[in-house]
């Protein structure tokens, strides 16, 4: 079978011809070596034309030539949580601009992945890692990951990190509810033993104490990060003899359970129950009324993680440490407590 010209794969020569530059210029752009050699305007034009023509570099040939793959592993604990998908999207978009590919690795319950990490790094099958809410195995030699990994929503000595301002976000949520006159504020907590959720718990307790409010164990209910478990936990809160007037949820996924529990009782949100979440993904805008929640800039977080990792590839004098600010987005799920309107 003779193939027509239109079926021929697009090459760097084709891109160069259409962009009016040399083939070596195209190679420099896609190798990430154009800085100082090719003007930013020309780089953008080459990338635009390459995208328009559907050009994809020959990664197999490049790997043999340069000795690396330009593959970054995005490691997460739970593939079903939409938060990680949103961060991954930002990471993928940014990596693509720098000619890197991102693959997803979900650890699930298996934390013994040191051998996989070591094999991947020593064989150059993976260039680096973005560890999103995942810590390295406790017995791992961090020198293996130094300059090759960025940890997100966690910190680890020796690794570059992007931390979320969980304390500030939780404070904003609690102070919003207190400002509306709520004093019986329950905590629908994630039953996950990681620092990001421990920070939410500590800050919740501290905000109560600052206002002289007694911490009552009955006003804290724990649930797995899924709506079914959250519904069971929220039911316990709403069936108390003195139910809360507001619930602070560790995650928007848990807020779904709070909404469902309120609906079972015929309660109106927010007139009879104010609800605040944490995350601000599609869930927050899908719920009715739309959810007041602490917004995590997921796409920007993924973008920044890749930027820090690529910078570490070049030179790492000291691990990079950065705190990402969070903000409360007030929507329709919160209002003044009855009698304070």
Short structural description:
This is Transcriptional regulator, LacI family. With 341 residues, the chain is α/β, with parallel strands linked by helices.
Describe this entry's structure for a reader.
- This is Transcriptional regulator, LacI family.
- With 341 residues, this protein is α/β, with parallel strands linked by helices.
- It folds into 3 domains: 5-57, Orthogonal Bundle (434 Repressor (Amino-terminal Domain)); 67-164 and 298-325, 3-Layer(aba) Sandwich (Rossmann fold); 166-296, Rossmann fold, CATH 3.40.50.2300.
- 41% of the residues lie in helices and 17% in strands.
- It is built from 12 helices and 12 strands.
- It has helices at residues 12-19, 23-31, 40-53, 59-66, 82-97, 114-122, 166-179, 195-210, 227-238, 252-264, 282-286, 298-314; strands at 71-76, 101-106, 128-132, 149-152, 160-164, 185-190, 220-223, 246-249, 274-279, 292-295, 321-324, 327-329.
- The strands form 2 sheets. A 6-stranded parallel β-sheet has the order 2-1-3-4-5-11, with helices on one face.
- Mean pLDDT is 86; it is low at 1-7 and 60-67.
Average per-residue pLDDT, rounded, comes to 86
Total number of helical segments? Answer: 12
> What is the general shape?
elongated
Per CATH, the superfamily of the largest domain is Response regulator
Work out the strand percent. Answer: 15-25%
How would you spell out the order of helices and strands? HHHHEHEHEEEHEHEHEHEHEHEE
Order of strands in the sheet with most strands: 2-1-3-4-5-11
Estimate the helix proportion, in percent. 40-55%
Under CATH, the topology of the largest domain is which? Answer: Rossmann fold
